[in-house]
């Protein structure tokens, strides 16, 4: 049963809000501040009778009446007058259970919860379809950038074949600071935490989980498949040092935590990890807490969207624009998604060039250098850029190696390590030199 | 009368196409190539029974049956079975008359015609509203970039206060080539013409008319006002020389033909013209035939969209995505626009820094330099960067001047010219150093 008619008949719409943290407060503030505009453009006055919170006594960053707060989710789910539920509490449970109940009782759901969608998206989607209600989730990926709307509300006569994005603002801020100031990872992280850009426990961001959730969602939408997050090759940024960023720049690259997904004949290539992007790449200049996504499609070519990926207002904006879309558009806001666990293989994305950084004791550095170059040449690879720097009796090497796969390079460096030639953990990062030449191929096939 | 119901009942939709040039051919090719995908996602098979052309005998770049071609627009407008008309013929007449007739006979209209919309948009919009049909025009601005859908189909709880864009691919290609190769304007234009990026008569592009039409459309949508194209301050790129691009780069800028529109308390500031953008500006790295638009809104902040702004497939994509939206969405695809000639003032956009380039005979250069600096200082301005280059007995100067308005600088250079001190026409270009600090201001007001 769709409750569209109910929504339309009553020019006041009652919304239940789950969560009143940063995003929830933002939603309340924006609803208040923009209420005249929303009324003018959608015809609806929005009321929020109930807000689910854990602790009703907690000091809030927004003015709410005590009677609005509740610790009982059923107050919202069972309220027949509430036709839309907004979830900004995060985490899998109890969000999953509450949202399933809300959908099944005929309420539209708007959620910002990337982890929930990445892990249980198809279950929620199915519940929405069965109840004839809509599940909208613009805020779950890249905050203020309307990439979900672009993929699922706009592109229809286009087939997407690749998506690349900077989907995590925290790590982008840290990498930007490290590059600009020479700070270490730990120093830049501490600063990000002070500014509220990083959580006290930064694991989700710096280990790439957050970006992987978002990549799973985008991949599911773009390719109509369900990709388990655990199938995504994932690397964090903790091993990156200022020297890597400096050398990358010397070679004409910048290091970004990139989430990539590409449909190939072999399967779906997916990865989240730090990459070297040439300065000419559309995502190379996306700095600080900004996010960006490039979507490659067969007719329109590549379109890049850049904006704030997190924060109170950009995320609240995405939530509320989902709400205004529900109020303004009488049909489905998004194309019907079919996330099915189809027979696809998940593969690591490929690269033909890698940056490697390794360190040896000074007295062994020459032997090591010669040995590595010899093996690389034997295996058909080539060192196309190289730089080294001596510090504290150790020699640091930074190379760009062409035509060897990652696993070969790791094998090589593991061998050197086993032989006692490396004095620190080496680093291997892919370079993204080729920017989707496939688009021209497909367009010319038309 | 809306013919939505008619469209929905019949799972074949019949479309009339006006024009079969580059974009029209692209539309036909994409409809054919993607028909299975469109059917799968919208439920509709699309037929194009009639295509209006000037010369039915002309060789076409796409396979069409002779019986599809017609020189009689009434074949389309009077055909009761055609519910959607796509116009890609360009120019004001006869497009305006045919589209008004089509709208008034209850057909939805999709157009790529920026000139027509900029000059007669409100008339067409009114006709559409009166007939209960939709007028869609994504392809009219920035080709493959869905900026219309972003402004009018997405942003609802956001108030836009500024738009900046690189909206013309031809001039962006010319400026990119001039900078990268040192070619003159004439050389780069000739190359663009050879590659099909520029028309035989390039006036519309290089004089900024094309960008001004697009800016008028975006301004109308963003600020709900009707802006006459003639009110837009407009400059072309013919006076730009390779030396300007080189000097701009030395000062940390790149020169782009920028279209800007900003709502201020004094009125709407509008301009199209070459500007110096700092390298950190989101539009500074948009090269070749790419287009980009940054939209500044009060909640979400700034969002930049980058993609191909012209060409057969990007433009056809925009046309066809308007078509799929009509088929997929049961309500209005775009928010209701109200282009009204309200009491607003159109003003030139302001800048606090300008690049000036002027040339004098060598023997007079010292006198000129001293005189100009003295007057600039007297008027409260300051030269913050300067460079000069001697060539063929002449001295070329490139300065960045702060705190003087454009008209003062022009006055100054006119005076020097009247005194016989300048040996060539000088150049004055604004620098865009401040990137919308207003967003923070407004967000903090919430």
From TrEMBL, chains A, B:
Keyword vocabulary terms for this entry: Amino-acid biosynthesis, Metal-binding, Methionine biosynthesis, NAD, NADP, Oxidoreductase, Sodium, Threonine biosynthesis
SUPFAM superfamilies from the UniProt entry: Glyceraldehyde-3-phosphate dehydrogenase-like, C-terminal domain, NAD(P)-binding Rossmann-fold domains
Top-level taxon: Bacteria
Pathway, per record: Amino-acid biosynthesis; L-methionine biosynthesis via de novo pathway; L-homoserine from L-aspartate: step 3/3; Amino-acid biosynthesis; L-threonine biosynthesis; L-threonine from L-aspartate: step 3/5
EC number from the UniProt entry: 1.1.1.3
Principal EC category: oxidoreductase
Catalytic activity: L-homoserine + NADP(+) = L-aspartate 4-semialdehyde + NADPH + H(+)
GO molecular function: homoserine dehydrogenase activity; metal ion binding; NADP binding
Every Homoserine dehydrogenase catalytic domain range: 146-323
Protein name, UniProt field: Homoserine dehydrogenase
UniProt cofactor(s): a metal cation
Stretches assigned to the Aspartate/homoserine dehydrogenase NAD-binding domain: 19-138
InterPro entries for the chain: Asp/hSer_DH_NAD-bd, HDH_cat, HDH_CS, NAD(P)-bd_dom_sf
Gene Ontology BP annotations: methionine biosynthetic process; threonine biosynthetic process
Family: Belongs to the homoserine dehydrogenase family.
Pfam family, one: NAD_binding_3
């Amino acid at each position: 049963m769709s409750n569209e008619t109910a929504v339309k008949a009553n020019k006041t719409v009652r919304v239940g809000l789950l969560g009143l943290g940063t995003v929830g407060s933002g939603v309340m503030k924006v609803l208040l501040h923009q209420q005249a505009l929303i009324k003018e453009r959608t015809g609806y006055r929005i009321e929020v009778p109930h807000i689910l919170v854990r602790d009703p006594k907690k000091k809030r960053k927004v003015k709410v009446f005590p009677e609005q707060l509740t610790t009982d989710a059923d107050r919202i789910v069972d309220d027949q007058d509430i036709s839309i539920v907004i979830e900004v509490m995060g985490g899998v449970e109890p969000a999953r259970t509450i949202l399933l109940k809300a959908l099944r009782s005929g309420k539209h759901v708007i959620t910002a919860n990337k982890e929930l969608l990445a892990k249980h998206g198809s279950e929620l989607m199915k519940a929405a379809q069965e109840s004839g209600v809509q599940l909208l989730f613009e805020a779950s990926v890249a905050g203020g950038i309307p990439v979900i709307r672009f993929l699922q509300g706009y592109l229809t006569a286009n087939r997407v074949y690749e998506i690349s994005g900077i989907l995590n603002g925290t790590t982008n801020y840290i990498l930007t600071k490290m590059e600009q100031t020479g700070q270490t990872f730990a120093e830049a992280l501490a600063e990000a935490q002070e500014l509220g850009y990083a959580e006290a426990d930064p694991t989700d961001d710096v280990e790439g989980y957050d970006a992987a959730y978002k990549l799973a969602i985008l991949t599911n939408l773009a390719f109509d498949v369900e990709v388990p997050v655990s199938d995504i090759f994932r690397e964090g940024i903790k091993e990156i040092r200022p020297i890597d960023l400096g050398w990358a720049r010397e070679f004409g690259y910048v290091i970004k935590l990139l989430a990539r997904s590409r449909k190939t004949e072999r399967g779906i290539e997916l990865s989240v990890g730090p990459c070297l992007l040439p300065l000419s790449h559309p995502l190379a200049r996306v700095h600080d807490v900004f996010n960006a996504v490039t979507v490659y499609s067969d007719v329109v070519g590549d379109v890049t969207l850049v904006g704030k990926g997190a924060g109170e207002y950009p995320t609240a904006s995405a939530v509320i624009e989902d709400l205004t879309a529900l109020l303004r558009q009488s049909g489905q806001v998004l194309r019907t998604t079919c996330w099915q666990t189809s027979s696809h293989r998940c593969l690591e994305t490929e690269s033909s060039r890698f940056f490697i950084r390794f360190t040896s004791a000074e007295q062994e550095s020459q032997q090591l250098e010669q040995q590595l170059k010899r093996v690389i040449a034997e295996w058909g690879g080539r060192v196309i850029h190289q730089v080294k720097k001596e510090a504290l009796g150790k020699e640091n090497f930074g190379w760009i190696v062409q035509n060897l796969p990652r696993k070969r390079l790791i094998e090589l460096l593991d061998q050197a390590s086993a032989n006692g030639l490396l004095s620190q953990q080496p680093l291997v990062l892919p370079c993204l030199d080729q920017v989707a030449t496939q688009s021209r191929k497909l367009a010319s096939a038309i």
